[in-house]
């Protein structure tokens, strides 16, 4: 009898460990699995992420409204729960926390938790759109629905949009009177687009040396992103299939041999269509 009483705490600890492990495995399957319930969960997370990004884009204008802080802290709670769930599901949480995309999410979370103190860094929130694109979550539906050829131009469009809104937020925060609302934000966006396209109407300019340097950086990066977008749209579609010999990843759709080393390729049809 005494032994069974003493074994109760050990049994409870083992049950807690089992539940803990099962919960981690369940979350890991939801975030990274391919079953229907996991795919539905991932789609829901993606939709929530896109809604949050829309809030990030509109936050300079929404800041003047009474509901801004309610929405801001609600988004912070959602993002915090997502980060905590992903960390809990990770096989090595400490190593996962050191990844660049995770550190970026933590910075974004800090700007949400302290919107007044970190107001000058709020423009960094839009970079989450780029991180989602790089992680591949944004393109899984395209691959699943049979449109993998849209991924490359889609990534180029996302990179361009991310830069446009990132530069707009920086210009609005740094050079325009913060709090000017929709008019000031549109002016910042108008200047960004005219600089990226090198149109340069000259009706809106950034003052001082830093303004000129900012304009130069925007023009250089903008031209590069436009060229990248044009290449992605007009060049022939390539299949992502690593060569077993040399590692070359991009090949023609009907490629039989690797162009770099001549190794025979076995590209599956379902990876092309």
Automatic annotation (TrEMBL):
GO biological process, one term: action potential
GO MF terms held by the record: voltage-gated potassium channel activity
Gene3D superfamilies found in the cross-reference section: 1.10.287.70
Keyword Ion transport belongs to the record: yes
Lipid bilayer topology: Multi-pass membrane protein
Record's subcellular location: Membrane
Main location group: membrane
Potassium channel domain: residues covered: 162-233
Transmembrane segments: 101-123, 156-176, 210-230
UniProt keyword terms in alphabetical order: Ion channel, Ion transport, Membrane, Transmembrane, Transmembrane helix, Transport
Any GO CC annotation of this UniProt entry: voltage-gated potassium channel complex
InterPro entries hit by this protein: K_chnl_dom, K_chnl_volt-dep_EAG/ELK/ERG, VG_K_chnl
PANTHER family for this protein: POTASSIUM VOLTAGE-GATED CHANNEL PROTEIN SHAB, VOLTAGE-GATED POTASSIUM CHANNEL
Name recorded for this polypeptide: Voltage-gated potassium channel
Source organism: Aurantimonas endophytica
């Amino acid at each position: 009898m005494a032994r069974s009483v003493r074994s109760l705490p050990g049994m409870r600890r083992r049950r807690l460990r089992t539940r803990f492990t099962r919960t981690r495995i369940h979350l890991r399957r939801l975030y990274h699995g391919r079953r229907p319930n996991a795919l539905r969960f991932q789609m829901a997370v993606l939709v929530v992420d896109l809604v949050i990004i829309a809030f990030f884009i509109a936050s300079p204008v929404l800041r003047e409204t009474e509901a801004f802080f309610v929405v801001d802290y609600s988004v912070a709670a959602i993002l915090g729960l997502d980060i905590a769930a992903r960390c809990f599901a990770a096989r090595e949480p400490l190593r996962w926390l050191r990844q660049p995309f995770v550190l970026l999410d933590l910075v974004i979370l800090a700007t949400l938790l302290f919107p007044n103190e970190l107001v000058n860094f709020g423009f960094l929130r839009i970079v989450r759109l780029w991180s989602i694109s790089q992680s591949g979550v944004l393109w899984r539906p395209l691959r699943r629905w049979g449109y993998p050829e849209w991924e490359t131009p889609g990534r180029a469009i996302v990179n361009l949009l991310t830069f446009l809104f990132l530069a707009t937020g920086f210009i609005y925060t740094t050079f325009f009177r913060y709090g000017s609302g929709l008019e000031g934000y549109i002016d910042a966006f108008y200047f960004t687009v005219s600089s990226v396209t090198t149109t340069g109407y000259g009706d809106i300019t950034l003052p001082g040396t830093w303004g000129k340097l900012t304009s130069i950086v925007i023009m250089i990066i903008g031209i590069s992103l436009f060229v990248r977008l044009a290449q992605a749209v007009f060049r022939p579609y390539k299949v992502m299939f690593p060569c077993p010999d040399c590692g070359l990843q991009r090949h023609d759709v009907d490629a039989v041999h690797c162009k770099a080393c001549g190794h025979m390729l076995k590209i599956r049809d379902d990876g092309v269509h």
